[in-house]
Each structure stands twice: as structure tokens, then as C-alpha cells.
């Protein structure tokens, strides 16, 4: 028997945003199947069948996935290492599992939010910046480097300057996950600039802020919120650094030229969902900072009820 067409969701058990979307699909009566990637390979099995005269088939345990009506590629999270398994064996199993999972779902000819290859490219922040400038968005003066002399020169020519990672904002130190926030680069930090050789980073002019802007894009819809980051000193450089759950938010409409630039950037990146961060300057100019191809949005829903979750559900259901 041929299985029904359905939405395939690739996520993690810890992602509450996925729970909300799954509930929305269920309320609409949309057939769907969720894969929590922590379950692979130790709790669930994956089987991709190729060759022969029929179409390829993909199954998780005994649940066969027909050609999905859409795939929502949310995120991947690794399972914990079994206590009896050696570290090297564990790493091998993770690598093989990741190759099998992504290789199997990437072969599905369907509509994506968004394809893993596009998500991977879009996570490279220097790539984002280059494309954003090409489509007409204003970007900060930026330098991607690990050359100490280049950093010193930028410090004296950019004026106030910030530094942030080229890709991931997380690191594991002494077994603990730690966040790496966008930070001011101060004169006293230049004393340690030779250590910058160990890891390239993005060095940028610090853009004066009226508001931080989070623009969540679903298909061709944009849900924009202004975040009053300057009301909290801890959030002034990177609003994610605040511990204030009530940082003021307000809904806004982006200027048409900025809106067009954001949508052009999403198209260039191949993304159908993205959390775009911009700055509105005191002169009401808008400057692109970065896009997270699988960013969070629930806290905006809690504060502003913009309908982002409903838009994602509607997009997946329409396919």
C-alpha cells in the first residue's frame, strides 16, 4: 500500500517551536511525521531503498514516508554517547548517521523549508554579508580576518568596533556549552590581538542603534519587530545578552526598499524561512547584520502575537 503524502519534519525533541507547528498541523488535519534527530541512530532506525523499477522509499522504523508534500528542516541535534561506547566509535556513528539522514532526506524532490544545503551555506556569515550587499541592503564596514595587523588597522579606521563569530555562536568549554555574543572591541583588548590568529572572526564598525530589528520571514511574508535594546545596558551591543524577559518590543513595517532587499536576500540564499537581524539607526536607516536560517520566534509571538507560527503552518499545509 502506498503511504499518504505528508509533511516531513526534521527537528529535535527539545525544540518547543516545533511542538507549536506540529499542533497547528494537527488542528488543520494535515498529515505529518516528525523525526527527532536525537533518536537516531540509537533509538530509531532509518532505511532508504534505491534502485529497482519503483520509486525510492524512505522509512523510519516501520513508518514509510512517501514523497513528502513538504519537508521542514528545522535542526539536527546529536544523541548522548552511551556510557559503554568509546568516544571514537561514538563519533563515527554520529558522522555516519548524519550522512545517512541528511543524504536520505536531501534526495526528496519536494518543497523545502529550507533545504539542508541552503541552510548550511546560509549559516556562513561572511557569505550572508556579501550577498546582502549585492542585493542592495546596507551592511556595516566589515573585516573577516585572523591577521593581527589588519585588526589593529581596522580598530583605528572603523571607529567604535565590534567582533563576532563567522558561523557559530557556541563553544564547549570544560564540557559546558557557552554562548559567544557580539562584543565591543576596546583598546585594552588589542594587548591580546596576537591570539586572534587562532580563529578568524568578523570585525565591524559599531552601528548606532535606535532599535534592534528582528524580521522573521516565512515564504514571502515578513513579520518585523523592533526591540528596544538600548533601554537595557546589557542588551546595548547584543540584545540576546540581556536577562530581562520584558525588554520592550513593538511591531513595525519595514520600508519597502528594505523589505525588497530582505526578500531578495532570502531568495539568493535559497531560504523559505529566516530570522533576519537588522539595526534601525537614530536617523531611521536600516542596516543588515545577519540571518539565522532556523532562528527562534516564539518569544515574539508571546509579546506581539504576530501570527508567525500560523504562517509556518499555513505554508507547510499549502504544499
Summarize this structure briefly:
The chain has 319 residues and is of the alpha+beta class. It has eight helices and 18 strands. The protein is globular, with a radius of gyration of 21 Å.
Structure, explained:
With 319 residues, this protein is α+β, with helices and mostly antiparallel strands. The relative contact order is 0.14. The protein has helices at residues 16-28, 87-106, 116-122, 125-134, 148-158, 256-269, 298-304, 308-318; strands at residues 7-11, 32-36, 46-49, 57-60, 63-65, 70-73, 111-113, 142-145, 161-164, 170-173, 176-179, 183-185, 201-205, 211-218, 221-227, 249-252, 273-280, 286-292. It is built from eight helices and 18 strands. The longest helix has 20 residues, at 87-106. Strands 16-15-14-17-18 form a five-stranded antiparallel sheet, with helices on both faces. Strands 2-1-6-7 form a four-stranded parallel sheet, with helices on one face. It has a four-stranded antiparallel sheet with strand order 8-13-9-12, with helices on one face. It folds into three domains: 7-113, no CATH class; 141-205, ATP-grasp fold, A domain (Dna Ligase, domain 1, 2-Layer Sandwich), CATH 3.30.1490.20; 208-306 and 314-318, D-amino Acid Aminotransferase, Chain A, domain 1.
Amino acid at each position: 500500500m502506498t503511504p499518504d503524502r505528508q509533511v516531513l519534519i526534521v527537528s529535535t525533541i527539545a525544540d518547543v517551536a516545533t511542538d507549536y507547528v506540529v499542533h497547528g498541523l494537527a488542528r488543520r488535519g494535515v498529515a505529518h511525521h516528525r523525526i527527532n534527530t536525537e533518536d537516531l541512530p540509537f533509538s530509531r532506525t532509518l532505511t532508504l531503498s534505491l534502485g529497482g523499477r519503483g520509486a525510492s522509499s524512505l522509512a523510519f522504523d516501520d513508518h514509510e514516508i512517501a514523497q513528502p508534500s513538504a519537508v521542514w528542516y528545522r535542526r539536527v541535534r546529536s544523541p548522548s554517547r552511551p556510557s559503554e561506547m568509546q568516544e571514537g566509535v561514538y563519533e563515527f556513528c554520529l558522522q555516519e548517521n548524519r550522512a545517512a539522514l541528511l543524504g536520505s532526506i536531501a534526495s526528496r524532490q519536494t518543497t523545502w523549508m529550507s533545504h539542508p544545503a541552503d541552510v548550511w551555506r546560509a549559516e556562513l556569515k561572511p557569505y550572508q554579508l556579501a550577498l546582502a550587499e549585492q542585493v542592495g541592503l546596507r551592511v556595516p564596514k566589515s573585516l573577516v580576518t585572523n591577521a593581527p595587523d589588519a585588526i589593529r588597522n581596522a580598530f583605528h579606521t572603523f571607529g567604535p568596533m565590534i567582533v563576532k563569530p563567522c558561523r557559530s555562536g557556541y563553544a564547549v568549554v570544560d564540557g559546558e556549552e557557552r554562548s559567544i555574543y557580539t562584543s565591543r572591541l576596546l583598546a585594552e583588548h588589542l594587548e591580546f590581538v596576537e591570539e586572534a590568529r587562532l580563529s578568524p572572526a568578523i570585525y565591524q564598525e559599531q552601528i548606532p542603534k535606535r532599535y534592534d530589528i528582528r524580521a522573521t520571514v516565512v515564504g514571502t511574508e515578513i513579520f518585523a519587530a523592533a526591540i528596544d535594546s538600548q533601554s537595557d545596558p546589557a542588551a546595548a551591543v547584543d540584545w540576546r545578552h540581556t536577562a530581562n524577559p520584558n525588554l520592550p518590543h513593538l511591531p513595525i513595517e519595514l520600508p519597502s526598499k528594505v523589505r525588497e532587499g530582505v526578500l531578495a536576500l532570502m531568495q539568493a540564499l535559497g531560504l523559505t524561512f529566516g530570522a533576519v537581524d537588522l539595526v534601525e539607526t537614530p536617523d531611521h536607516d536600516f542596516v543588515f547584520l545577519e540571518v539565522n536560517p532556523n532562528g527562534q520566534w516564539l518569544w515574539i509571538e508571546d509579546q506581539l502575537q504576530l501570527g508567525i507560527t500560523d504562517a509556518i503552518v499555513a505554508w507547510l499545509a499549502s504544499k
